[in-house]
Write a structure and sequence with these properties.
six-stranded mixed sheet; 7 helices; Molybdenum Cofactor Biosythetic Enzyme, Chain A; alpha/beta; single chain; 47% helix; 163 residues
């Protein structure tokens, strides 16, 4: 079983003015794929706050995957990719590229996503969209490949190959 954390980045969600629906969608998808949700939080669209939470979770050694939701668009307050870039040590550009390519078959607006993905220590961070529908599409598309990537990151690939 893998441990995951979910961070929803939303000023209105953090202030209690909007219900977080994307976070629970991520949790459901991850749990359906055998992940245990270690922590699920809603944070304001503040770069330093998001980066601090990402760093804390990665450095705890308790989480293998962090999925963020929201803050990947063009709004001035959308800073999730920048906060992610502040903390990752290695980029994984293929993950958001693949999600965008898949999403382009659904909507041309997918090209507006600024999502990134990267590794800090032994934790993979993946930025996801803010809408439950887009989360379902993007994470649903990527989950199997993410699992394989985590096996490699955590030196479990040889073990999995033997199964």
């Amino acid at each position: 079983m893998r441990n995951a954390a979910i961070i929803t980045c939303s000023d209105k969600g953090h202030a209690g003015q909007r219900e977080d629906k994307a976070g629970p969608t991520i949790a459901r998808l991850l749990e359906e794929h055998g992940y245990k949700i270690f922590e699920q939080i809603v944070l304001p669209d503040e770069r330093a706050v998001i980066a601090q939470a990402l760093t804390r979770l990665c450095d705890s050694g308790n989480v293998e995957l962090i999925c963020t939701s929201g803050g990947t668009g063009f709004s001035e307050r959308d800073v999730t990719p920048e906060a992610t870039l502040d903390v990752v040590e290695r980029l994984c550009p293929g993950i958001p590229e693949a999600m965008r390519a898949f999403s382009l078959s659904i909507t041309p607006r997918a090209m507006l996503s600024r999502a990134v993905a990267g590794i800090r220590g032994k934790t993979l961070i993946v930025n996801l969209p803010g809408s439950p529908k887009a989360v379902e599409e993007c994470l649903g598309y990527a989950l199997d490949a993410l699992g394989h990537g985590l096996d490699i990151l955590l030196n479990r690939a040889a073990e999995c190959a033997r199964k």
